[in-house]
Amino acid sequence: MKYWLVKSEPFKYSWNMMLKDKVTYWDGVRNYQARNNLKLMKKGDLVLFYHSNEGKEIVGITKVVKEYYQDPTTEDEKWVVVDLRVDKTLKRPISLKEIKGDNNLKDIGLIRQSRLSVMEIKKEHFKYIINLSNEK
């Protein structure tokens, strides 16, 4: 199993929309590295859901329920989507500010590659973030 993080601007697709939909395909990725990461996702992988631009915080967890296939929003065969299903809302959101201030997360992709919209997360970072959200 691998662990991932996907970003979405809340005004385009928020966690509340994800909760309502329960399952969605993750579309609109037009960066080759992010697309390649979608292609690496496997059924059962866990994915952190991050609100970018507004909020700038990790708010929930989804699970990959269908591996990559052609992005239905374009006829260009280069672009793919995966299906994600809601797993759970974090007990408390973990902000980018908190992540940047935590030495245990200094190597996380969210900081190192801040513009990438789909990225792999180390298992230890994923678990640490979940534990942080359970505190306070």
The dominant shape is globular
CATH class: Alpha Beta
* Discrete helix count: 5
Give, in order, the helices and strands. EHEHEEEHHEH
Counting DSSP E segments of at least 2 residues, the number of strands comes to 6
User: Helix proportion of residues, in percent?
Assistant: 25-40%
Radius of gyration: 14 Å
Fraction in beta strands? 35-45%
Task: Please identify, by name, the CATH architecture.
Answer: Roll
Give a quick account of the main beta sheet: strands, pairing sense, barrel closure: 6 strands, mixed
Low-confidence stretches: none
In CATH terms, the superfamily is ph1033 like domains
**Mean pLDDT across every amino acid position:** 96
The CATH topology: ph1033 like fold
- The order of strands across the largest sheet is 2-5-4-3-1-6
Would you tell me the structural class of the helices and strands? alpha+beta
When the domains are counted, the total is 1
Spatial gap, N to C terminus: 29 Å
Explain the overall architecture.
This protein is α+β, with helices and mostly antiparallel strands. The protein has 5 helices and 6 strands. It has a 6-stranded mixed beta sheet. A hairpin with a 5-residue loop joins strand 3 and strand 4 (57-70). The chain is globular and about 45 Å long.
